[in-house]
Design a protein that fits this description.
The protein is mainly beta. It has 1 helix and 12 strands, in the order H-E-E-E-E-E-E-E-E-E-E-E-E.
């Protein structure tokens, strides 16, 4: 019985070593990222604009021959001037959730944009790395807007006490005024 085990064990080990050797010779193409969309989160917009104090919707289809190892999202401003009451905002996160560590996942996330982030143009990058070490990335430009804006303010140049005067400006509020 012992000789039979040894006789069976040698071919099995040979097959295991041979199949491992074949795996090392396999070359996988880099992942392909398609349909990268981003925009206002509440409406799942895809127009590349979002609002301070709101969330940003992101989605992309990933075609990967090898299992995805990580997905990294980065967002940074393009020479933005930080105004009073604003704070510089950059975002970077690597996603290794189980739902993404498969072949051909759909990336879908929502990122909160702080209300104190400067309005302006941001650069956005989505990078996908597979278990074979291949990396692909896609880039875009995101316009972060203020949810409430006030146009140029105009007022009568001279005003006499006790009389009416004229002031004119436009308030644009994306989510309405309450």
């Amino acid at each position: 019985m012992n000789k039979l085990r040894h006789a069976l064990l040698i071919p099995i080990l040979g097959l295991a070593l041979f199949s491992c050797q074949d795996d090392e010779d396999v070359n996988f193409d880099a992942p392909v990222i398609s349909g990268f969309e981003f925009g206002e989160g509440g409406t799942h917009a895809t127009d590349g604009t979002a609002y301070r104090g709101s969330d940003l919707h992101l989605e992309a289809e990933i075609l990967a021959e090898a299992t995805v190892a990580s997905i990294t999202l980065t967002i940074h401003g393009h020479d933005l001037v930080v105004g009073e009451g604003e704070e510089e905002w950059d975002f970077s996160e690597t996603y290794t959730d189980e739902k993404y560590m498969v072949k051909n996942p759909t990336f879908h996330e929502h990122v909160d944009i702080p209300a104190t982030a400067p309005a302006g143009e941001y650069h956005i990058t989505l990078e996908v790395t597979d278990l074979a070490g291949n990396t692909s990335e896609v880039e875009g430009h995101l316009e972060v807007l203020s949810a409430v804006t006030i146009s140029e303010f105009a007022m009568d140049e001279t005003v006499a006490r006790g009389t009416d005067f004229h002031v004119e400006f436009m308030i644009n509020a994306v989510h309405g005024i309450h």
